[in-house]
Amino acid sequence: MATIEDVAKLAGLSRTTVSRVINDQPYVTDEKKQRILHAMDELGYVPNSSARRLRSQRTETIAVLLPRITNPFFGNLIESMEQKASKAGYQVIVCQTHDSKKKELDYLQLLKTKQVDGIIMTSLVNDWELIHPYLENGPIVLCNEYMENKPVPMIHMDHRQAAYEAVQHLIEQGCKHLAFVHGEQEGHLTLERKRGFEQALLDHGLTSSENQVIQGPMDVGDGRQLFSYIKKEMPHIDGVFTGSDEVAAGMIYEAAHSDWKIPEDLSVVGFDNQMLSLLMVPSITTIEQPVKKLADKTVEVLLKQLLHPDPVRGKSHVFDHKLVVRGSTRKEKLILH
């Protein structure tokens, strides 16, 4: 097995110079760096990453906290984050909280115990007062989730405006009795979508008392149950903003086995523009999030925080979204995008 001394001998340089290149330290010319890299490649030499991390007091590991990996949005998000981090020499570990306050705090301990260099949070279930102290142990970046006036970088889209546009679209399609559906947790992101829902109703002269907010549904199975519940208990509802393509898909599937038609009897809007939204019949009108842009920017911001800690960290990066109109709301004619 080749050693660092073997690399130095083959490259015709000192052991110290080789060490500088391995640890990505300055003051080595490009010509010498190339000689060393060529020697390492020829000898098949692989640096001891554990020793390098110990010297730098870094783990070169990032933790990403998310509710559940089975949600395609988070699956795609984590894939893009891992690719971006890997190019920078960092590993990513996935921490599923399942919306548990205890699990979220347990994973934040990874930062306190120096098992990771930084943490990305894609959702929040605890109050900020419980999360804030962990900033003393390393950088935290919020992605997708966001809160007002908090000292952390936040990378997200405008969920209030996205909800507003989704509900406005339903109203423009003739819907007058609407429902807004969200998951079990009522975090800041959900509140922002709810505000968008309520503002759209207000701007179009529809009163909140005639419309519904339904909490709980998260996946396809929940969507099936939700459709049955609306059909039986709230048959006056003619438009639903689900906040989830999975829930929307469940509703459309169940409707196909009933005497109701989508969108003639009930219009449905999802969220995220997952592949599932194209496969349903009718296909799902949805909000498209720029997943790769969100992921890349989040990792970029976190790595900058690791290299150059910034005491003023509360900057938001807001990305555009897109309302993708398809068959689940378009009553006049089904046109696929």
Automatic annotation (TrEMBL):
Keywords: DNA-binding, Transcription, Transcription regulation. InterPro entries: Cro/C1-type_HTH, HTH_LacI, Lambda_DNA-bd_dom_sf, Peripla_BP/Lac1_sug-bd_dom, Peripla_BP_I. Coiled coil: none annotated. GO terms for molecular function: DNA-binding transcription factor activity; transcription cis-regulatory region binding. Pfam families: LacI, Peripla_BP_1. Residues 3-46 form the HTH cro/C1-type domain. Residues 2-56 form the HTH lacI-type domain. PANTHER family: LACI-RELATED TRANSCRIPTIONAL REPRESSOR (PTHR30146), NTD BIOSYNTHESIS OPERON REGULATOR NTDR (PTHR30146:SF136). This is Transcriptional regulator, LacI family. It comes from Halobacillus alkaliphilus.
